[in-house]
Structures are given as C-alpha cells and as structure tokens.
Amino acid sequence: MDSLTDISAIREILNRHGFRFSKSLGQNFLINPAVCPRMARECGADGETGVIEVGPGIGVLTRELALRAKKVVAVELDRRLLPVLSETLDGFGNVSVIGGDILKIDLNELVAREFPDGKAVLCANLPYYITSPVIMRFLEEHVPVSSLTVMVQKEAARRICAQPGNRECGAVSVAVRYYAEPEILFEVSRGSFLPAPKVDSTVIRLALRRESGREIEDEARFFALVKAAFAQRRKTLQNAVSSGLGIPKAEAARALSRAGIEQNARAEQLTMEQFAALSNSLPE
C-alpha cells in the first residue's frame, strides 16, 4: 500500500470509500511523514506494552504504533472510517479497531479486557474539541495507563503544561499536575495535516504519578477549591473562594492565613503545595 501520508494515496482511499471530512468531528489527517514515527517512539510503545489510540482516522499513527507495540486498540467514533481502517490496517494482526465514543466507553473495563497484563499507554492525535474531556477522563477515573502522549492544539498544550504560579496556569493545569508530570515534546505545524487546521499543534506527554505526592486530606474539596479559584481568576483568592465555595469571607480569610497565603493573592500565583495547604485549611 502507498504511504498513508501521501495526499494522492489518501484521496484515492477516501474517494473509494465515499468518505468526506467532517468539520464537527475535527477530522484532520496527518500528512507529515516524520510526525507519527516520532510519536510512536516517544509514547514508549514496545513489545511488552499495549497502546490505546483515540481517533485513528485512516490509520497513519496506528500503523506506526503497531510496528512497535505488543497490541494496539484504536477507538474510532466515525463509523464511516471503519471500512477504510479495515483496508489500511490489513495485515496488522496486533491491531483491534473499536467503533465507539471514547467518552462513553468503560475505560477501566477496556484496559482490563484488552491488556490483562496491565502494561498500557495512550497515544493519540486528539480532535481539538475533546482534548480536555479525554485527558481528564483518563486521569480522574484512574485508568491504568502509565502515560498519555497526545497531540493537541498548541495553546491547549501550553495551558495543560503550565506551571502553577505562571500566568498561563488554569484549573486544568493544576488538575493535570495533581495526577501527572506533563512535558512538551515537539511542535507540529498546521501544514502537516489534510485538511490544514487554522492553528498549529503540539505533542505532549503526561507521565502518571502512582501517588499525588502531596498531603491532601480531601480530594473532592481540593478540586472544588481549584475550580472556584480559577472561575473568577481576576478576583483575589479570598473573594473567589468565598463566592465559589459559598463560605463567609472571614472564613476564607482564616483559611488563607492558616495556609500561609497572602490575603490579596490570586489563583495563578499559587504553587501546587499552596493549593494543597489551602485545601486542607478550608472548613469541611
């Protein structure tokens, strides 16, 4: 089969199956031949590791993963692509394609069924509109994968990987760092896709932590605090926490004092350790 990054080959395959791109599904297929091999290497796929892929498209990244991984399970929402994948992945016996919605599938059951030895990673070129929901679902549900290597919109990558205490830091930045250690791997220009999106992309990797590494007494309270703090990030923490959590300003002020945080501090200025201390200082 011709290279799946060759535009003529792509168009021929898609035309043969009567496929048309869907803007609502954020479909942009990679045509830069250097990107998928690098993603497959960077995600840590090897002969003992299984890979979950989200949105395989026509199978460009899937094939690279299959060359390295023990097994690849690709979840594709657009059922029009299933016959295309059946053709492009023909001969790869270690690939299983599932037609379904990654946001609705029982991920823990999927990993237990497909990767019974427990060694698995996520590697995907994520449609922009489901970037945060997919990442947070894997993290919050404690899906047993060791890392998430994903291609996302460039600005989203900067937010996800932003250090607490940085102006680009937001609720998702803190949430991700609670569960994982994020890092930016490399950038991918918009011209690397067919059709070309309006923005550039970035590949990031989130290495999951076995433990949060921080003494947090109540996880639900911690995340409620983070959400409240960034929901009104222009306000001081005292006001944002008071209104967001529905507690008196005086109580919010006492919690800040107990945590050793200045009364006029704002959410973007706090470190992970300070968020943990403030969470533990809040009333139950």
List key phrases describing it.
single chain, alpha/beta, Rossmann fold, Helicase, Ruva Protein, domain 3, two-stranded antiparallel sheet, 9 strands, 18% strand
Form type: elongated
Structural class: alpha/beta
Q: What is the ordering of alpha helices and beta strands?
A: HEHEHEHEHEHEHHEEEHHHH
The main sheet orders its strands as: 4-3-2-5-6-9-7
Mean pLDDT over the full residue set: 93
CATH topology of the largest domain: Rossmann fold
- Beta percentage is 15-25%
Assigned CATH superfamily of the largest domain: Vaccinia Virus protein VP39
Could you estimate the helical fraction of the residues in percent?
A: 25-40%
- Main pleated sheet: 7 strands, mixed
> Can you count the helices?
12
User: What's the structural domain tally?
Assistant: 2
CATH architectural category of the largest domain: 3-Layer(aba) Sandwich
Question: According to CATH, what is the class of the largest domain?
Answer: Alpha Beta
Q: How many β-strand runs? A: 9
Distance between the termini: 62 Å
Rg computed from alpha carbons, rounded to a whole number of angstroms: 21 Å
Low-confidence stretches: none
